[in-house]
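It would be a great kindness if you could assist me with a short task in structural biology. The full record is reproduced below for your convenience:
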Amino acid sequence: MTNTTAAPARDRLDAPAPDLRDLTRLIALMTGDEKHAPAAHSTLDSLWVLYSRVLRVTPATVDDPGRDRFLLSKGHGPMAYYAVLAAHGFFGEELLPGFGSYDSPLGHHPDRLLVPGAEIGSGSLGHGLPLAVGTVLGLRAQGLAEPRVWVLIGDAELDEGSNHEAIAHAGPAGLGQLHTLVIDNASATHGWPGGIASRFASAGWAAVTVDGRDHEALYSAFTTSHPGRPLAVVARVEPKG
């Protein structure tokens, strides 16, 4: 991981700033029987940059209509997500050791009714991007043009037809509030001619591919100007072993 200067979201001015170096310790607190640790670690750097430098949401604004929305579609590997939420104060780190246990709110798939800061329940492949499209359309219907919607998906989810339909709709519809982050760890079965970014670009999206471990490259990609078009950022990480 390449360290960056964070602009952390905090409830109190005297709260300690989130520290990237603390993530390893926070993840180590989760000792449950996690079958998808590589999926979790593949998202760690992207999640850190989003929550530390990009997303306009804090523990104090999780119910504010004007907040940015982050949807974790890749919910079958949530350890990094939980660690980043805890680091930014959405819940106390004392919840982490119970990860995956019967009475813990931190399940193997996030539950939006139990996890502070979670916008959707997720884990099944192919749901998050269509939900993000619907969220943008809902915001439009309410006249809310400022909130941005981010959704993190895995490259294997692009094998799902529901995502193909969401991609095909969002570009021509000009959903500029929509941002899709694709974690590419070479898990997709079918692939796409010219790479993942070309799939989005051919449907009218702005699309960029970056090193998913380079924080400055991620931040630059996340803040790419894309007026009138949705944005797709493909973050390449090491192949899943």
Summary: The longest strand covers residues 178-184. Residues 2-15 have pLDDT under 50 and may be disordered.
